[in-house]
Write a structure and sequence with these properties.
Blueprint (H helix, E strand, L loop, with lengths): L10 E3 L2 H6 L7 E3 L4 H10 L5 E6 L3 E4 L18 E2 L5 E2 L1 E4 L3 H10 L5 H7 L9 E3 L15 E3 L7 H25 L6 E5 L6 H11 L2 E5 L4 H15 L3 H12 E5 L4 H17 L10
Helix pairs in contact: 2-7, 2-8, 5-6, 7-8
Length: about 290
């Protein structure tokens, strides 16, 4: 028999004999909690419609909140939709190639600290190279090509390749963003957490590619904030949405407005054409 399905705020108390054994006088509450992506969506969106949660770590994701389990056109399968809590869902998607791309570039170019270089970057203009950073296999069938760098010259520098990598990660997430738009789940604001959200250049390029303002979470480890929201909700009996909504502004830090959006819109179309042309089975059909 399978276990019963419960909400993330489902709570049990530790048995008194176990509490005594571990040296706790009052049996603590055990709250079921959410998977890491769901906790981050809760913390970054506050369950607010029109806001997208973005994780920028070893992998990356973009998700919104919906009252229905929205799926993509089966020809494209760009979305992976998870249940969230209290009758809400988290449609969106993830890519495997994010922080790992910078690690690979650091090894390839023998850069001692690629993240120090990334930290020094400030956005001035779109990168010259186009990078399709598909180094690892992806979850989205349309992204079956392999890593490709275009528009290199004799003078291309490590700095430009790192810039192109940041853009390439954002362009892959834009594939998911386009799917959300296609299914009627548009958003006006993006709130980003995760290790790569520490870097101003990454956030600015993300804003440019999506054509929307990006807000950096004050605590980039927003998963812990989401779980704290669930703990307070479960123990105090307050709806998670109310707690998350009250903390939404406290969670959000500096804002990065989009720049050069028309240029990046054209680069996104080029990115899709390149990925389709390099598709190994020759049967990719992009929307």
């Amino acid at each position: 028999m399978l276990p019963a399905l419960e909400e993330a705020t489902y709570t049990l108390r530790l048995r008194s004999e176990v509490s005594k054994e571990v040296g706790v006088s009052e049996p603590p509450a055990l709250v079921l909690g959410l998977y890491d992506g769901g906790s981050m969506v809760l913390a970054l969106t506050g369950l607010e419609r029109g806001v997208a949660a973005v994780n920028l770590g070893t992998s990356a994701m973009v998700r919104v909140v919906s009252t229905e389990p929205i799926l993509d056109d089966p020809r494209y399968m760009r979305l992976q939709t998870y249940y969230l809590l209290h009758g809400t869902w988290a449609p969106g998607g993830a890519v495997n190639n994010a922080g790992v791309v910078f690690e690979w570039l650091g090894r390839l170019l023998a850069i001692d600290d690629v993240y120090a270089l990334l930290s020094s970057l400030r956005y001035e203009r779109p990168p010259r190279p186009i990078f399709v950073p598909l180094l690892l296999g992806e979850r989205i069938p349309l992204l079956r090509a392999r890593g490709t760098l275009l528009n290199l010259t004799y003078d291309t520098s490590p700095r430009e390749l790192v810039e192109a990598a940041a853009e390439g990660i954002a362009l892959m997430l834009a594939v998911v963003g386009e799917a959300l738009e296609d299914r009627g789940l548009g958003f006006d604001l993006m709130v980003a957490g995760g290790g790569l959200a520490r870097y101003e250049y990454v956030l600015q390029v993300l804003a440019n590619v999506f054509g929307r303002a990006v807000v950096r979470a004050r605590d980039v480890d927003a998963v812990h904030v989401g779980n704290a929201i669930l703990g307070v909700s479960a123990i105090d009996g307050v709806h998670s949405g109310r707690v998350a909504s009250s903390l939404a502004e406290a969670v959000r830090g500096p804002t990065y407005p989009p720049r050069d959006t028309e240029v990046f819109r054209r680069r996104f179309e080029l990115f899709k054409r390149v990925a389709a042309a390099l598709e190994p089975l020759g049967d990719a059909r992009w929307p």
